[in-house]
């Protein structure tokens, strides 16, 4: 188990180093950082001083190591655009994205799990076939289309939910939350639905597949033979046996949701990390882009590692063979 | 039989509609089991033994359904009940025992929880009383230390112990009938006899009728009172176990008995009889056994023989009818 753990963590660290290398290369070689940071009036002497100060005269390897060292301490340098520290910019945006992603996750579970159960139990009924069909559409519709449709219907036509921004937020320490104000909660509705759409279909399909599998098992037939009512067989006995993979997938998906949030945040002008990244791209704000890449990758890798370790804890057969 | 039977299956027919027409899985199955009686059901794999039990419990998998005949339990017709009504028959009036105790129990719930669930579904007991009853049931099926064991999970029990738990679950509401589908097939040979004798003892004590499906003629010989022999979805012979084993009347039963070298042996296939059982969609006209029967007559290929009295039991064979006609 220890060996497995070490292997898994080493694996994660390696992935992060590669990601950091990519971030560093963007940082270092997409345009000349000095060129991007100074204006016309800056003298050559000043430019050289800046080059010296940023350590751009050292060898590339040294620069990379320093980049990694700083990144580990949460230092991604200064934003080119507004001269703020990148890390504090991200910290400001982080809560918005996390709240959006968690809300979308909750919606995808609350809607997706029952739909999966129902389509598995009544798999021959017309509405199950219809849901299966709709879920294919859900998977293939780009999330910005869904976002725009939602805005069109609920903000423009019905005017029942705000279409952009985060509403009023309350600060708790460095964290800001929109969950405690009515306008904050209202603002969360459409973007989280738009973001959860794809996830709902994934959860539904997974639960459906797992349920079909479990419903074939003997203990389900035996429960029916004991006179356990159908709803209880399905929701207590069968569903419980499907939850493990659902929990796993949900954890993994939080990572991809954070990445997907980029599009949704743009559509809804949601002041999260994704929007920050898009703005960084338009302004060629390299340090912010590099930091975003590193942080999102880190969340991804951390969640994946966590899931792998949980798997191993539950199934002893996985402990030695994998990784 | 003098008294009214506990289970009375009359001319039962089960069909599975499919793309190429309907498949008849059971065709004209009639049998009775009295209270406290154990009826063994034997036959080759695919003969329809399990199907008979499932049909009685109303657990046929759609699109399979009862297409004809009647099922009576303790004087009440049950094949026409709604699914909701059947929920109260299953567990309450009909207990079930499945083949594989390793997979019959929900791995995520303690055995106590599953017992209490069953008890409270069918009997008006509170949580604490139900728990007491669960412990008593575990003791009754011979599980040592039932007070602690009640909180254990299925994986903490051995195969034999798990089958005892399954029996406790089947008996939880004191049903009138128990359908045991190969209850010992998945167990160690050394444990099989314990389980069947436990089943026999409990059913005799409580006057429960039992349908005991098995491949094992040894189990039938030791446990059953009467035995029913099935072939291709039909009943070919039924009678007192000693007579059927010693003097089988139907040629198929004779082949079946002849192929058992010793007690305790399983019968995957009949060595004595050439060929194999027909597929359900290709059952020959007349007697279903005629392509394999050593005594086949022209009549066997056109007319289906009915179950007729033969010795102390019933048998569906033209030889039997012929003998009676000759005697008359
Ligand atoms: N869903 C189905 N559709 C069509 N035919 C089916 C279906 N399920 C079972 N059958 C058929 O019904 C027949 C009876 O099966 P059953 O399970 O009762 O056999 P069995 O006598 O219990 O055999 P075994 O000893 O292998 O348990 C088999 O021939 C099987 O092919
Ligand atoms: S009816 Fe004919 S074919 Fe069938 S078992 Fe009797 S003798 Fe054989
Ligand atoms: Mg069977």
Largest interface (CB within 8 Å) is between:
A-B, 16 and 30 residues
Instruction: Count the beta strands of chain A.
Output: 2
- CATH superfamily (homologous) name of the largest domain in chain A: MetI-like
Helix fraction bin of chain B: 25-40%
Oligomer: heterodimer
Low-confidence parts of chain B, pLDDT < 50 over ≥5 residues?
261-265, 267-271
One letter per element, helices H and strands E, the order of chain B comes to EEEHEEHEHHHHHEHEHEEHHEEH
Q: What order do the helices and strands of chain A follow? A: HHHHHHHEEHHHHHHH
The number of helical elements of chain A comes to 14
Question: Spans of chain A with pLDDT under 50 lasting ≥5 residues?
Answer: none
Mean pLDDT of chain B: 89
CATH class of the largest domain in chain A: Mainly Alpha
Main β-sheet, spatial strand arrangement of chain A: 1-2
Give the distinct bound molecules. adenosine-5'-triphosphate, iron/sulfur cluster, magnesium ion
Strand portion of chain B = 15-25%
Question: What is the general shape of chain A?
Answer: globular
Shape of chain B: elongated
